[in-house]
Amino acid sequence: MPSSKDSRAGGGRLRLRAFQALLFVLLVVIWYVLTSPTLLPPIYFTEANQAAFFFGEPVKVFARLWQWFVSGEIYEHLWVTLVETLLAFLIGTVSGVVIGLWLALSPTASAVLDPYIKAVNAMPRVILAPIFFVWFGLGIASKVALGVTLVFFIVFFNVYQGVREVSPVVLANARMLGASPRQLLRHVYVPSAMSWVFASLHNSVGLAFVGAVVGEYLGSAKGVGYLIHQAEGFFDMNTVVAGILLLSAFALLLDWAVGLAERRLMVWQPRTIETERT
Amino acid sequence: MPSSKDSRAGGGRLRLRAFQALLFVLLVVIWYVLTSPTLLPPIYFTEANQAAFFFGEPVKVFARLWQWFVSGEIYEHLWVTLVETLLAFLIGTVSGVVIGLWLALSPTASAVLDPYIKAVNAMPRVILAPIFFVWFGLGIASKVALGVTLVFFIVFFNVYQGVREVSPVVLANARMLGASPRQLLRHVYVPSAMSWVFASLHNSVGLAFVGAVVGEYLGSAKGVGYLIHQAEGFFDMNTVVAGILLLSAFALLLDWAVGLAERRLMVWQPRTIETERT
Amino acid sequence: EKKDVHVAVGGKASLYYLPLTIAEQLGYFKEEGLNLTISDFAGGSQALRAVVGGSADVVSGAYEHTLNMQPKGQYLQCFVQQGRAPQIAIGIVTAKAKEYKSPKDLKGLKVGVSAPGSSTHMILNHFISTGGLKPSDISVIGVGLGATAITAVKSGQVDAVSNTDPVMTKLEQDGDIKIIADTRTLRGTEQVLGGPMPAGCLYAPVDFIRKNPGTVQALTNAIVRADKWIQSASPQDVLRTVPESYLLADKALYLFSFNKVKEAISPDGVISDAGARTALKVIPTFNPEVKAKEIKLELTYTNEFVKRANAKYK
Amino acid sequence: MTPVLALERVSCTFLSRDDPSGRYTAVCDTTLAIGEGEFVAVVGPTGCGKTTLLNVAAGLLKPSTGTVTVLGRALGGINTRAGYMFQTEALMPWRNTIGNVVAGLEFRGVAREEALERGDAWLARVGLTGFGKRYPHQLSGGMRKRVALAQMLILNPQILLMDEPFSALDVQTRQLMENELLELWSADRKSVVFITHDLEEAISLSDRVVVLSAGPASHPIGDYTIDLPRPRDVAEIRLTSRFIEIHTKIWRAMKEEVLKGYAQQQRQ
Amino acid sequence: MTPVLALERVSCTFLSRDDPSGRYTAVCDTTLAIGEGEFVAVVGPTGCGKTTLLNVAAGLLKPSTGTVTVLGRALGGINTRAGYMFQTEALMPWRNTIGNVVAGLEFRGVAREEALERGDAWLARVGLTGFGKRYPHQLSGGMRKRVALAQMLILNPQILLMDEPFSALDVQTRQLMENELLELWSADRKSVVFITHDLEEAISLSDRVVVLSAGPASHPIGDYTIDLPRPRDVAEIRLTSRFIEIHTKIWRAMKEEVLKGYAQQQRQ
Ligand SMILES: Nc1ncnc2c1ncn2[C@@H]1O[C@H](COP(=O)(O)OP(=O)(O)OP(=O)(O)O)[C@@H](O)[C@H]1O
Ligand SMILES: Nc1ncnc2c1ncn2[C@@H]1O[C@H](COP(=O)(O)OP(=O)(O)OP(=O)(O)O)[C@@H](O)[C@H]1O
Ligand SMILES: [Mg+2]
Ligand SMILES: [Mg+2]
Question: At what angle do helices B125-136 and C147-154 cross, to 10 degrees?
């Protein structure tokens, strides 16, 4: 029963956005100053333009982004990466939820498989990439697979724990009300583990992008990761940074969608109690 | 109040271990059969020894492992990798918990920083490696940093959500009992979020290893990742697999330690009720 | 015969594979009736794996891998050459350059290679052996092929570096290193390795070549044409032809490197027997699994297609 | 006649997970049979094992020794013939009031329309019309209890297991609910096990009052048949002299027991 | 004399998060003052807003309008002079019984030794000696309530806010606890707000009984001074004629109100 501390009116929301924008501008300015060869005496680096070599220069980065969209050259790559990301996200989430539920609910299977799951999670994906290429080819599928191996575990571990945190009384009540195992799953375990799932989804969004880009980076003919790889070959850090920024923006978009779903599905949660204030 | 379904006596535990061992042997046998060029007609691959090229051969892999330990050549590499992993795990966990707590408890900071955290999480670590090398050098530090960027987010997202799931009544009660914000943190938020933390730790263990190995893979002079990378240059898949297996074994060890801590710290949880059975 | 050919390459933008890029940009593959997909990989060994695994048909990569693969029971054959020198250089940081006289002065130093076990490592080992040093006399650090390699040198984490272009040119231009061995030139290659050595090639599983001679011929034709085009092209021509994104970062750097490696680019795509023998001599010392006696050298390359291509495109 | 629900020599010993030697026998050697259409109230000092017994009867807890039979058959898993109203809060927090009330119907595959209709009727019966859209955390304690009551009763189970169902209600609402329950019970011969701390409530509702001893190792120490005439009005019956007589008798027995138990616990 | 705790024209309107137009006024325009050493019982139909008022008094809920003053000063955040025993379960599940009881002392920096000693004494007072090592989920409902009671009382707060503290206890234990509470209260002039559904309990304990109307927009509709002599024994005082007189008077007022409220909710 905490007080209505973080209820935020429209005005607060606007101020928040302003804050965020300010912070963004500030960061860009710092970035600009630090990477501009002429503005400052070199601080961290011994040479003037070394900072730019590693971090790119904001003006050129934004020019790059602008040019990508104006020339339209980015769309095909972006499309590929987004498709890979979304597929990895969806497949990883669904399989993580399904297998997480399964193992959480069948103690024997989980006890037997537990070490295998943990061992697989400890395997470096980058090194496994060639095997993915063999199994899934060089197209979208292998990148999706790589992304899935990242997303799956995040979701899996949370679902697994979330299910085991179900209130024993609520569970017993549902059983007494005649819920079949299937209905228990749908009406008790899943809703109860929902906030665990969402916590993992916020993390998964990012890693789905990472999976797609790294997959492309390791071997591909298209995609933002491919562009980044090409640019790296010639130390074109501006393009690298532009690619990363572009993907970050889309990651935020996807995360916003996840947040939307979360707010819709979690209305029942007793967060803060809102009394009307005048 | 579920029945005492998964209470496991000593006998059950033994059977479980036997099962797991059996499964392991089975997997090795399948691996052996599928990669042995002479045993089977090629199924998936067109050429007989292609499978061995990608997956190694169990006999040679175990020989490799044996030889590593007998000659003692592995210890120095293993040591480096383990140190990196442990440091990444510890630093990532601690920072994830601390920042997770901080942001969960200060709504303004979290609202402002939220998009930045999510954007950073979506950045492909592999591509950022050069920057880590600039900042942290080619030694242990840069691998630790890479591992931390993986572990941190896993822990962070769970702590953040875990804190917000604290029962409002328990929280109110503690406040009424005179807990200062600091005490609330220590005596309410942290214990309440503990099962969230542990769920993330089981995942982090794996990713700490991934971070260390990938870091070594990208540039290093020592470590299991270095050995793997070197072997890859010679297409020596047996060594690669041996390295991965070795690390998996250590990941299981670390996970077991985490599980031990979990069982100690979570005794209070109302899981299954155990009645004495005769 | 395959019309849709999938080529795997590790680091497509590199000058090592300039003929491939040129042939693609000038539409030579299309003119040969091929529909080419070029997948770019993080490294040459990854590209090779893609072909062995069957997800790509042809590798654009270093010749030496055909030798490395034979003990694994993988028979790959090189059918056209893009470069005739490994295009790897070794440099020592300027601070240490003064004390450096001969390879044996590298003793005890930390040397960066792109990856342990890679060609840069091999060339380095061979180079120090000319000074009477054993591989264990230096400590080798994997520093990657790109910005990480530059970082390692500039931040003083390595004393010397063995790497490819554009890393070496960049470091050279910035004055961070002094080149002490250079297989980007024919003469340098002769010095370090005792003979020419095939570098960037197109190769494919022997099976593939047997089953698709027409396709292979078409690929060879395109590359040979590109080889020849480069020989006669001015730097400006090259700048105009390569994708713009290669030049974004530093046009001067690209040009500088190009001039440096131009002579290492094969003029006609022919793989020289001498070159193959150099490889056979060098590689077993580095990769003990490759035993010179067991290697069927004749299986590792063929000039059959190149001859026909040269006949067609004079 | 076979009883509808029978606990035969049931004992429950709890183990503690962290300390295997630490065990606590809550209920010991308890036999209890509830016939068809019988309304049995169980009273006993706090912590004696009433909830434990109910959990055993519901099939949620396996007794350490002893057997549970339902309609003559040994109880394996959940007691499907029973509805259970828990002492603690057991509503699904992710379902609003009406959703919680109709949950059981939904599980049984009743059509949504019909379920909602019956759910609304039940909300009205427990005095919560208009609160259908609220989530549990937006209800008061007594409201949640009433939702739980409706949730159980809507399924019309043959056996009702009720653990202090009305303790969070004000006296008037409680009487309304009690009458509601009696009406339902008399209509189709349900068997009821009703735990309460209110001896008046126990007597005014039931056919039999079972008194449990203080824990540990609690067991029935008294079984009083309530021969008050039916139908009863719970408010009026309390004023009859027979009621007061019975009340005094049971009261005395209990008082002794509680003081004993209290002393016992303090000595431990 | 300034009252120790005063609610002045307090209203509480709840908003629902998902539907901004959906609002519910639980308490409307309620004024309530508790003097030093005064024991005030609050009764009212279920769901009328008693818990809401207590939350406001504790500083856990900001009223929509109106003010709360403690010892003459406006209440900003938490009411630090008050101890609050919640209606719902509020024990820290990760602390065992003794850990929960001494939590407040620990927060105040009392030395561990001393805290444990006082905690043990309190466990004995609520009849839970020997249960110190149990975790909340291993206790019965009534035991948990008693732990919560000890948890609050060990801090010896000046203001006691108690929300149906004894409803889960059997009559005898309840009387023991009630006497314990009265003793404590009379010893150092605490101010008590005591919510209960048991009118007899309300009368036998308190100086004043406040009756709230049925919700929505609940407000006090009766304020009865209980002029029974002190000290009282809660069991004996119920038999005096003055007690029965007061009881009948309040009862009648309440009955009307409840029926009205019940009808109101059903009409909504
Ligand atoms: N999981 C458990 N582990 C250990 N002891 C338990 C457990 N559950 C209950 N107990 C103990 O069993 C005894 C009986 O508990 P139960 O909940 O049945 O009491 P009750 O009669 O329902 O009491 P109340 O009237 O307070 O609800 C108590 O002493 C309690 O501490
Ligand atoms: N968070 C909330 N959102 C909306 N309505 C609420 C919320 N909390 C309480 N209410 C409503 O406010 C009213 C009063 O609730 P409160 O808990 O104060 O009742 P109460 O008098 O304590 O009842 P009881 O005796 O049943 O405990 C109820 O109608 C309840 O539905
Ligand atoms: Mg109970
Ligand atoms: Mg209440």
Answer: 10
Chains A and C touch (3+ CB pairs under 8 A): yes
Gap from CA of B271 to ligand 3 centroid (Å): 18
Homologous superfamily, domain B73-270: MetI-like (1.10.3720.10)
Residue type, E25: T
Contacts of D42 (CB under 8 A, 6+ apart): D50, D53, D193, D194, D195, D196, D209, D210, D212
Chain centre to alpha carbon of residue D148: 12
- Calculate helix-pair angle for B125-136, B190-218, nearest 10 degrees: 80
Q: Which of D267, D208, D194, D217 is nearest to D47 (CA)?
A: D217
Which pLDDT tens digit goes with each residue over A62-118?
998 999 999 888 999 999 999 999 999 999 999 999 999 999 888 888 888 888 888
- E137/B177 Cβ within 8 A: no
**CA–CA separation, E268 vs E260, rounded Å?**
12
Identify whether the C-beta of residue B216 lies closer than 8 Å to the C-beta of residue B226: yes
Tell me the ligand closest to D142's alpha carbon.
Answer: 2
DSSP at E192: E
Indicate the helix (H) or strand (E) that contains C194.
none
**Alpha carbons within 13 A on the beta-carbon side of B217:** 28
Cα(E30) to centroid of ligand 2, in Å?
15
CB-defined contacts A:E, below 8 A: 36
E28's enclosing H/E stretch is: strand E23-34
Best CA proximity match to E119, nearest among E140, E105, E134, E136 = E105
pLDDT at B43 over 70: no
Q: Residues with Cβ < 8 Å from A264, sequence gap 6 or more?
A: none
Chains E and C are in contact, defined as 3 or more C-beta pairs closer than 8 angstroms: no
- Report the separation in Å between the CA atom of E48 and the middle of ligand 2, taken as the mean of its atom positions: 7
Q: CA-CA-CA-CA torsion for D189, D195, D196, D201, nearest 10 degrees? A: 10
- Give per-residue pLDDT as tens, E75-89: 888 888 899 999 998
Residue-level length of chain E: 268
Query: Could you tell me if C8 and C59 are in contact, meaning their C-beta atoms sit under 8 angstroms apart?
Result: yes
- Ligand approaching nearest to the C-alpha of E143: 1
Task: Mention every residue, 6+ apart, whose C-beta is less than 8 A from residue E184.
Answer: E153, E190
CB contact under 8 A, C117 and B234: yes
User: To which H or E segment does residue C238 belong?
Assistant: helix C235-241
Residue C192, Cβ neighbours under 10 Å: how many? 25
Model confidence at D162: pLDDT above 90: yes
Question: Which residues 97-116 of D have a C-beta within 8 angstroms of E?
Answer: none
Q: Angle, to 10 degrees, between the axis of helix A73-105 and the axis of helix A58-71?
A: 100
Report the C-alpha gap between B120 and B127 in whole angstroms.
13
Å from CA of D173 to ligand 2 middle: 16
The predicted complex's ipTM stands at 0.89
Residue among D11, D13, D14, D254 to mutate when testing ligand 1 (max atoms within 8 A of CB):
D14
Q: How many CB atoms lie within 10 A of CB E118?
A: 16
B100: how many CB neighbours lie within 10 A of its CB? 27
Q: Do the chains contact at B168 and A251, CB–CB below 8 Å? A: no
pTM listed for this prediction:
0.90
Q: Give residue C232's Cα distance to chain centre.
A: 21
Q: Is E90 at the interface with chain D, CB within 8 A?
A: no
How far is the first Cα of chain A from the last one, in angstroms, to the nearest whole number?
A: 20
The reply to whether residue D61 touches residue B276, judged by beta carbons under 8 angstroms, is no
